[in-house]
Write a sequence for this structure.
């Protein structure tokens, strides 16, 4: 009988310990559940806050891309303009070189000839008037 009583006591102790363990597990799991719910709520709130920001960032990125494309197009126009100005400058340089090397001496010769012609005409007129 002592054995049966000891056996009953051990079973009762095991049942009590099992019940306590179940209650402790329920408390722990309940706290874990509440913590997970809180984490989920915070993740949802963060997601709600971040989603518009991501949309705005995508919009800004799109605008930045358009701006970059515009800058590149303007750069290409500027490069074309610089090349055109360079070509015009080169042509002007050649024109001035031609003026200085070919036209200027010709003009000087014509001016000198015109001066000599004027002096010749003046001498002729003076001589003709004095002979009259």
């Amino acid at each position: 009988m002592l054995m049966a009583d000891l056996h009953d006591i051990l079973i009762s102790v095991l049942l009590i310990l099992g019940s306590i363990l179940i209650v402790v597990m329920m408390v722990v799991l309940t706290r874990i559940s509440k913590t997970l719910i809180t984490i989920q709520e915070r993740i949802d709130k963060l997601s709600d806050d971040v989603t518009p920001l991501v949309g705005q960032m995508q919009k800004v990125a799109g605008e930045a891309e358009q701006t970059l494309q515009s800058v590149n197009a303007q750069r290409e126009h500027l490069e074309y303009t610089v090349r055109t100005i360079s070509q015009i400058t080169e042509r002007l340089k050649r024109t001035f070189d031609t003026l200085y090397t070919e036209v200027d001496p010709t003009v000087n010769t014509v001016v000198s000839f015109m001066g000599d012609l004027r002096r010749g005409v003046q001498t002729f007129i003076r001589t003709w008037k004095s002979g009259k």
Summary: The mean pLDDT is 90. The radius of gyration is 54 Å. The first helix runs from residue 2 to 131. The chain has one helix and no strands.
